Amino acid sequence: MSAPIIIAIDGYSSCGKSTLAKQLANVLNYKYVDTGAMYRALTLYLLRNQIDIHHPEMVASALPQIHISFGLEPNSQEQFTILNGENIENEIRVNSRVASAVSTVSAQPEVRKFLVKQQQEFGKEKGIVMDGRDIGTVVFPHAELKLFITAEPNIRAQRRLDELQEKNQDTSFEEVLANLQKRDLMDTTRADSPLVKAKDAIEIDNSNLSREEQLNKVLALIKGLNGQSV
Ligand code: DC
Hints:
Elements: E1 6-11, H1 17-28, E2 31-34, H2 35-48, H3 56-62, E3 68-72, E4 79-83, E5 86-87, H4 89-94, H5 96-106, H6 109-122, E6 128-132, H7 135-139, E7 145-150, H8 153-166, H9 173-189, E8 202-205, H10 211-224
Parallel strand pairs: 1-6, 1-7, 2-6, 7-8
Antiparallel strand pairs: 3-4, 4-5
Bound molecules: 2'-deoxycytidine-5'-monophosphate.
């Protein structure tokens, strides 16, 4: 068994980062941390407590009350997100207010500092797959493997629409595409930790790749890492 590594996965909204990260964590028996879920959970707390998300000082003063962790469903072993002791996994995925507000919240430096610290803590012992927007650039700039995932916007919107319809959410392709493009723009243009490809990240466009093909591609990359084997 080779030494555990850190796998940093960055990319646009709904490009399949989490699916890949979960598959890798499963195959390698690594921890998995979905940092988007952390930003969503924090946003949900602010909305529920009527904290004005456009006032960074008010947001910053709420941070000490926010505790985010992850749990595992006993039967399916699916990971879920916990906010102050409550399983909020479903709500952060389907609540459209969270989807609209999260880019505003995640652009705030105090919020990022707060969550990045916890994320670095999770990765202290390596053996972790983490996905987000700034993992290879800010959270783990020395990660052994950095991936930058992309897919065409129409394909991403269709995947997200399928996911929402599976959860019985009534929405349209146009609405989903507009939200996704707005988030792409905010994520790539914000001043603090914008979404950019790290210099040493490997880019994978999965527009025409099946989940299995993508996984095999990455497992081959891991095998090829110096001194690593899976
Ligand atoms: O991956 P996601 O769509 O669940 O992420 C939700 C939002 O959180 C996204 O609009 C950008 C933000 N985010 C971030 O700024 N940094 C991260 N590491 C992860 C997510």
